[in-house]
Amino acid sequence: MSRNIQDVLKECESRLSGVDSPRLSAELLAAHALGCSRLTLNLERGRVLTDDEYAVVTALAARREKGEPVAYILGSREFYGLDFAVSPAVLIPRPETEHIVEAVEAAFSKGQAFRFADLGTGSGILAVTIAVLFPEARGVAVDISPKALAVARANAHAHNVAERIEFIQADFTRETVEGQFDLVVSNPPYVSEPEFAAASREVTAFEPTGALVSGPDGLDHIRAMLPGVAAMLKPGGRFFMEIGYDQAKMITSIIIDKYALFEEVGVQKDLAGHDRVVSAQKK
After folding, report:
1. How far lies 9's CA from each of 6, 68, 72, 252, in Å?
2. In the chain, which residue ranges form alpha helices assigned H by DSSP?
3. Which residue of 58, 147, 182, 255 is 20 to 30 Å from 31, comparing CA positions?
C-alpha cells in the first residue's frame, strides 16, 4: 500500500489526538524521520514513502502516543536560537527561561569579562548560552546529577565554550560553590507537590522529578540556596532566578526580610504576563 507524506501526517495526527499539539508533533516527528524540514513536508506532501520510511515515522509516533515528549524523542530542543541536546536526565528547555538570558544581556555588555555561576544547570542552557553570548565570560555550572552534567558538557563542547565553563557535581542547596561571582543565575526546582500531582503525564512520567518539585509550597530549594547565593556574589553582583507564576510575592519577601545585603529586588514578567524572574543585586 502506497502512502504519501500527507496520508502519513493525517494518520499520525489522528493517532496522537490524546497528546498535546498532535499536528505539530506529527510534523516534527515525520520531518526528523525523513531528514527534512517541516516546510519540505508541506512542499512534498504528495511524495510516497518507502516501507522503511513509513516504519520509522510510525515507530516515533508510537512513542509520542504514550506521552513521551517530542524533545526526548528527537534528542534536542532549541533555546535562545541555539540547538541543545536533551535526554530524560534533564528538563526540557522552556521559552520562559529565556527571560533570564534577556536579563543578563541587559545587565552586562557583550565584551565584558565577568565570572558567573549557573546553579542547577541541567542541560546547560543558561551556562552555555551566556558563554556563547559573552565571549569574555567564564563560569561554573553546578548540578547534583552526573547524568545531567554529562548532557551539559556535551552541549558546551557542541557550542565551543567548554574551555570557559567548569562543571561541578554538587547540591547547591547544601554546598556553597567556592569563589566570588559577578553573576549567579538559576532555574531551580520550584513546582509544589500539589502542582506536580495535577500536572500532565508528559511531565510527571517523563521529566526528572528532582529537577521540578520542591516541597509543599515549591520553595524548599529557593530557601535553602539563598545563603549560598549571598555568599558567592561579589559586591555589586547580580542574581537572576526563574520562579513559578504565583511565587513572586513570597520570594521577594524572603529576600527583603532575611537578606539585607540585597538591593534592587525586582520581578520580571514573561510573555504571558506572569511573574517569571526574580532579580537582586548585592550591595
Report:
1. 5, 18, 20, 47
2. 5-15, 22-34, 38-43, 51-65, 70-74, 98-107, 125-133, 146-158, 193-198, 201-204, 220-232, 248-258
3. 147
DSSP 15-50: HTTTSSSHHHHHHHHHHHHHTS-HHHHHHTTTPBPP
Residue 266 is placed in which grid cell?
525586582
Q: What are the residues whose beta carbons fall under 8 Å from the beta carbon of 236, sequence distance 6 or more? A: 182, 281, 282, 283
CA distance 202 to 157: 29
The C-alpha cell 536526565 sits at: 89
Distance CA 105, CA 234 (A): 19
Q: Mean pLDDT in the chain?
A: 96
Q: 101 by DSSP, 3-state: which?
A: helix
User: Cβ(18)–Cβ(65) under 8 Å?
Assistant: yes
Flag whether pLDDT at 201 surpasses 90: no
pLDDT 10s digits, 51-105: 999 999 999 999 999 999 999 999 999 999 999 999 999 999 999 999 999 999 9
pLDDT digits (tens, 9 = 90+) for 222-278: 999 999 999 999 999 999 999 999 999 999 999 999 999 999 999 999 999 999 999
3-state SS, residue 181: strand
Grid coordinates representing 43 are 512542499
Rg (CA), the chain: 21
